[in-house]
Amino acid sequence: MMFLSAVESFVIWIVVPIIVVQYAFAVFCLLKLAYFDVSKKEYVGWNLLILIVFFIGGIAFLIYYFKHPDKRVKPISPQTENKADVQSDKPDDGADENTEEAPIPDGMSSDGEEPKQE
Fold it and tell me: In tens digits, what is the pLDDT along the chain, a chain of 118 residues?
């Protein structure tokens, strides 16, 4: 707390909001970068630029982002279900309606196990 007591209070009231705004702006730019198709080397470079160079790095990235809309990747959204994809509520016995059941060999039960000898 000694550091804060040596600094004038009006300086703290100016610096803290600037850092908070930079943090929010950097998070916004990093989210945009996450859905941008660039190489790993470019990704790391943009990441460092956005985080280290306050405001200017984020602004430079946004300019690049809007000049290259072809590199944007659309986020994956959940697919809507088709009626054909939705299964009925009846239990599935493992056999399709259009397939024939294989004959059961002699000496085997319907579950594939040999009957117990008594």
Answer: 556 666 778 888 888 999 999 999 999 999 999 999 999 999 999 999 999 998 999 999 999 999 998 888 877 777 766 655 555 555 555 555 555 666 666 666 666 666 666 5
pTM for the full predicted model = 0.56
3-class secondary structure for the chain?
CHHHHHCCHHHHHHHHHHHHHHHHHHHHHHHHHHCECCCHHHHHHHHHHHHHCCCHHHHHHHHHHHHCHHHECCCCCCCCCCCCCCCCCCCCCCCCCCCCCCCCCCCCCCCCCCCCCC
